[in-house]
Amino acid sequence: MVRVATAMASPNPLLLVLVILTIVAAIPKAVIAIDLSRLYGHISSKRGDACHPYEPFKCPGDGNCISIQYLCDGAPDCPDGYDEDSRLCTAAKRPPVEETGSFLKSLLASHGPNYLEKLFGTKARDALKPLGGVDKVAITLSESQTIEDFGAALHLLRSDLEHLRSVFIAVENGDLGMLKSLGIKDSELGDVKFFLEKLLNTGFLD
């Protein structure tokens, strides 16, 4: 018994080393390695990499990914503050650019390439080409905080801008007669009114 106790109290150092190495070798590498990307997805997100679903917004400056809840919350999370950019935050409240573009194209398809002159003025002829095209106008509608910003971005004439303002005011007051006077078909009135109200409800006339 004394010999056993002594042996246990003073183990062979070489034997201990062999035991430790055997245990370490038996542990799966997945247990030893800590996957930081699972804990902090934005740390492993590099420029060109896709963001994780729970942090889908990529900062354009450094490629870091942040959660949607941090967009336009009043505190910049991207190093360059892009997540608080006024145009981005305005567009986030507006109808998607694709939806706006499709709406404008449907009016042109229904009424002809010069129809949108009745909304945006003389520069809106030829399918909006003098204003940069349908996509440019759709993006500007989404990003412009107010109708004044919209007019400035597209260099609209003051008279054309005031006409556009009168159309929005009429819709705001529930006067569909203004839309009918522009040649909007009865079958289109609901869609046009709904679209313009979306802009109104996000401060376009403020």
TrEMBL record:
PROSITE patterns according to UniProt: LDLRA_1, LDLRA_2
Keyword Signal among UniProt keywords: yes
Q: Which UniProt keywords apply?
A: Disulfide bond, Signal
| Coiled coil region boundaries | none
- A Pfam family reported for this protein in Swiss-Prot or TrEMBL: Ldl_recept_a
The stretch of residues making up the signal peptide is 1-26
Q: What is this protein called?
A: IDLSRF-like peptide
| Taxonomic source organism | Sitophilus oryzae
